[in-house]
Amino acid sequence: MARYKNPGNFEFLIGISLILFLSALAFFAPVLAKHDPFATNTQQWLQPPSIEHPFGTDRLGRDIFSRVLYGARVSLAVGTLSMLLSVSIGFLLGLVAGYFGGLLDALIMRFTDIVLVFPSMLLVLTLVAVFEPALWLVIFVIGGTGWPSVARLVRGEVLQLRTKEFVQSARMLGANHFRIMLHHLLPNALGPVLVAATLSVPAAVMTEAGISYFGLGIQPPTPTWGNMLRDAQLYLRHAWWYALFPGLFIFLTVFAFHLTGEGLRKQLGLTRTTRRV
Amino acid sequence: MIFQLVRRFTQTLLVLFGVSIATFLTMHLAPGHPLQANPELRLDPTAVERWLQLRNLDQPLPAQYISWLSRMLRGDFGQSLLYNRPVTELILERLPSTLLLTVPAFVLGLLLAIIVGIYVARKQNSWAERLVQIFSLAGISVPSYWFGIVLIILFTYRFPLFSAVGMRTPGDGSFWDIIQHMVLPLTVMIFHNFAYYVRHVRSAVLNVLNLDFVRAAKARGLTDRQVMILHVLPNSAIPIITIATLSLPMLFTGAMMAEQVFAWPGVGRFIVTSTMARDYPVIMTVNLYTASLVAIANFFADVLYLLVDPRLRVKA
Fold first, then answer.
1. Are A200 and A90 in contact (CB under 8 A)?
2. C-beta of residue B262 within 8 angstroms of C-beta of residue B166
3. In terms of CB atoms within 10 Å, which end of chain A has fewer, N or C?
4. B257 within domain boundaries
């Protein structure tokens, strides 16, 4: 009855194209931006979109289009670097917990539980407020708090895998723990982790934009989409373009990664589990 | 089952204990103290010392932790440095305004998601399904503060229909005044909740629809409606109830983003402004408050699961 029907993986294609497009914008920002993102021009403040300024100008007469392009660099850097950090920590802890089990497992998982019960936005907000805000700190904090879901996922995978025959036979052939983890468990747990990694990028982008919007993230004059929105909030009545474009790019970026993650999930035949084990 | 419950309960207690240590350490390992939040402020060093002494901030860490913990267990969460008033009082004062937004946003968002989710799950691979899937993915991708800003541009400035700031017009505060202030933030929150829940509802229903007993029920000649009401819905209710339970803490912590954009005088905005002001006792309490709520909700979700689904019970 369950006839398999493949309607084509539009999610993945659209998502990955959008990601490539946004990355190109970020990479070629110096070429594409017609204006210096920091150059103020008090004669030209709060100008509506025009050919010279496609996205208009802000309260100091800076070109919003150029600032949005440079903002893409910050967002994508924070998104990918903190993803790498959280996936590495999560993978390592999950692998160790699942493979060795026992007391080590219990310790790691209770630690994971503790980090997990703090709502991520609040945790990041607190940490960033307590220390001095800077780019590397934002990456470190978002990456350093985002790993528990990956750790749980990897642990679950490893628990299933380690009783499989091929792992047992590897062990009997005399492979050591390190070899089993690296050559047998890691490659087989890669699929779900890939999806989790893709989906942790938009979360990081969203969090960075959020704390920048609250004024606790990366500080002006460095353009980020979040702190541009914060500036724009005082000019909503007269300058709709000021707030529209930075937010639109946050949305596009987050949406692109969500689409890609969803597409990957479909392609790899993974189902979303609403419930942990 | 009792064994499982006891185990989960002790785990929850352990997590809460860890949460208290984590909160405490974060605050106290931070460089500097709240008086240094504003570097332009020139303070007399002896006055600073006295200020620290008065609040026991000059004691060694373990001693501070123990006295803090024992005060908390007695229900004393300290004074806000900013307002010079008990933190509990400040939070409780703002709770009604937050509940005014979060409760309707939760109920309406979930209800809408259940209706649309069930409808869409039955029409697999239809246009309606694709549309809802894309819409919900887009919905969780929209930063809620930006969505709020767009609504303000449209419905406060372009077409002046609704207010964008606060909960009541100064000097007014009648029922209709509050309602008209609620419209925009509520729209943002319902939209977000709907987008989040509808995915879960759809997959919960879909998971059950493909099971054998549903096919058997159809084979016995039950109508679609009967199959849905008697077999599918009761079985897909469990994950949906779990998701709902897990989001209960949100009701009490408010929506930070939406409240901040609309200057809503609730708990969420209080959290943001206190964090920015480095109001340490408030930040600690708020973190502890939120994390405990989440831990407790997790515990209840697990208990619920064991109660409804006997298959999960393990004999001790």
1. no
2. yes
3. N
4. yes
Those of residues 250-309 in B touching chain A at CB distance below 8 A are 253, 256-257, 260-261, 271-272, 275-276, 278, 283, 286-287, 290-292, 294-295, 298, 305
Q: How far, in Å, CA of A257 to CA of B155, rounded?
A: 30
If one counts the domains in chain A, the total is: 1
Residue A252 clears pLDDT 70, i.e. is over it:
yes
Facing A122 at nearest CB: one of B260, B271, B298: B271
**Mean pLDDT (whole number) for B120-141:** 89
Cα B170 → chain centroid: 29
Chain centroid offset of residue A154 CA: 18
Separation CA A154–CA A190 (nearest Å): 9
Domain boundaries, position A104 = 2-276
**Residue A28's domain is classified under what CATH number?**
1.10.3720.10
Q: Structurally, how many domains does chain B consist of?
A: 1
Confidence of residue B7 (pLDDT cuts 50, 70, 90): confident
**What pLDDT, on the 0 to 100 scale, is given for residue A276?**
36
Closest-CA residue of chain A to B154: A240
Where does the pLDDT of residue A274 fall: very low under 50, low under 70, confident under 90, or very high at 90 and above?
very low
Give yes or no for a contact between A223 and A214, defined as CB atoms under 8 angstroms apart. Answer: no
Please give the mean pLDDT across all residues of chain A: 86
pLDDT, tens digit, for every residue of B44-85? 777 777 777 776 667 778 888 888 888 888 888 888 888 889
Nearest-Cα distance to chain A for B203, in Å, is 8
Give me the total of CB pairs closer than 8 Å, taking one residue from chain A and one from chain B: 141
Any domain includes B51: no
Give the residue numbers spanning the domain of B113: 87-276
The tokens for B77 are 């969460």
Residue B28 forms part of a structural domain: no
What lies within 8 Å, CB to CB, of B87 at 6+ separation is: B77, B78, B79, B80, B281, B282, B285
Interface of A with B in 147-176 (CB under 8 A): none
Q: For B11-15, B26-30, B194-198, B255-259, which range has the lowest pLDDT when averaged over its residues?
A: B26-30
Query: What is the pTM (predicted TM-score) of this model?
Result: 0.88
CATH number of the domain that B263 lies in? 1.10.3720.10
Inform me whether the pLDDT recorded for A277 exceeds 50: no
B61 within domain boundaries: no
The percentage of residues in chain B with a pLDDT greater than 70, rounded to a whole number, is: 94
Residue in A227, A202, A212 with CA at minimum distance from that of residue A124 = A212
